[in-house]
Design goal:
With 345 residues, this protein is α/β, with parallel strands linked by helices. It folds into three domains: 46 residues, 434 Repressor (Amino-terminal Domain) (Orthogonal Bundle); 136 residues, Response regulator (Rossmann fold), CATH 3.40.50; 132 residues, Rossmann fold (3-Layer(aba) Sandwich). The protein has 13 helices and twelve strands. It starts with a helix and ends in a 10-residue tail after the last strand.
């Protein structure tokens, strides 16, 4: 209040008028508002956000929960950085702020979320890395906290979600490799119960069966979704007898292609010549040789859709985003390269 009082005294207007001008109230004329804002800037006045939040009953903050740790993010996570950019582009229209909530890989995500909610510093949440059965969804729904999930789950509380088209990756990838003569097609799957792994394996199995190719659980390679995980998959492939190795491989994680290439090369196997590879697009993948055949989507656009779909569920913004409850599978585009040119004899 001291800052507002000083402003009022300097401008010779009431404290109430200064407060309403700073908060953008419509009953203050534009000339007065500009005087207040200019004086506040010259004095270096910063509003007490905690007090404003209490008065308004909101914080103006949306939290984005993601897990961290070397086993998950490896040498860095460009995926979320580009998604964040799209999310904040929407939030900036409404003077909302995005805050990353970083849950360590050593902490239980349910416990972390309960602590975040108890502190009450976010108006809404975006959760990611959804599990097959995800207790966070019921927890947030029961407390009527607005949220959206980046990823599907068997846990269904009527929540909005967006997810990547892992079914499409499996079908298009398998169709493409089978057309080139491949029958032993390996895939990556997560080591935990992240739902995308179940979705991808089920779709992969169905795609194989549609071509009369038998499903072989030995073609599923479970590793952590990072560069090292890709490298370790390559080492395991190289250690297999040649007649048992996959001749083609599908990756659904954008960070693993670099590690897979490196591991194959270190083992004397050439991507695109000794094994066909189809992966996910990333900035690092642009420098791979041979050029990676990959699935691509605009992560910034994904972030924009996430933010708008979340705001559509919040009464203060629903009129501006009349989308209802969004539950959408986001398609990816196949970009042809040379990494899957190899055709087995």
């Amino acid at each position: 209040m001291k800052g507002i009082r000083r402003l009022a005294q300097q401008l010779d207007i009431s404290i109430g008028t200064v407060s309403r001008a700073l908060n953008g109230k419509p009953d203050v004329n534009e000339q007065t508002r500009q005087r207040v804002l200019e004086a506040a800037a010259s004095m270096g006045y910063v509003p007490n956000q905690a007090g404003r939040a209490l008065r308004k009953g909101s914080t103006g903050v949306v939290g984005f929960m993601m897990q961290t740790g070397s086993q998950i993010t490896g040498e860095g996570d460009v995926f979320f950085m580009r998604v964040f950019d799209g999310v904040q582009a929407v939030f900036a229209r409404h003077h909302l702020d995005l805050v990353a909530l970083l849950c360590s890989s050593e902490e239980d995500p349910d416990d972390y979320l309960q602590r975040v909610v108890a502190r009450g510093f976010a108006d809404a949440l975006i959760i990611s890395a959804t599990k097959r059965d995800d207790h966070r969804i019921d927890f947030l729904a029961e407390r009527k906290i607005p949220f959206i999930a980046l990823g599907r789950s068997l846990t269904d509380a009527g929540q909005p979600w967006l997810d990547l088209d892992f079914e499409g990756i499996a079908k298009v990838g398998v169709d493409r490799l089978v057309a080139k003569g491949h029958r032993r097609i390996g895939i990556f799957a997560p080591t935990d119960d992240t739902n995308l792994g179940f979705v991808f394996i089920d779709s992969y199995r169905q795609a194989l069966e549609s071509h009369g190719v038998a499903f072989d659980s030995g073609m599923i390679f479970r590793e952590y979704p990072n560069e090292r995980g890709g490298y370790q998959i390559a080492q395991r492939i190289a250690a297999m007898p040649p007649h048992q190795r996959p001749t083609g491989f599908l990756l659904i994680n954008e960070k693993m292609s670099v590690g897979l290439y490196k591991g194959l090369l270190d083992s004397g196997l050439l991507p695109g010549r000794d094994i066909a590879i189809i992966g996910r697009d990333s900035p690092h993948a642009n420098y791979l040789t041979p050029k990676l055949t990959c699935f691509r989507l605009s992560l910034r656009d994904l972030g924009i859709s996430l933010a708008e779909s979340l705001l559509a569920t919040m009464p203060a913004y629903a009129d501006q985003y009349p989308l209802g409850v969004v539950r959408k599978i986001v398609p990816l585009e196949l970009v042809e390269g040379d990494s899957d040119d190899f055709a087995p004899t």
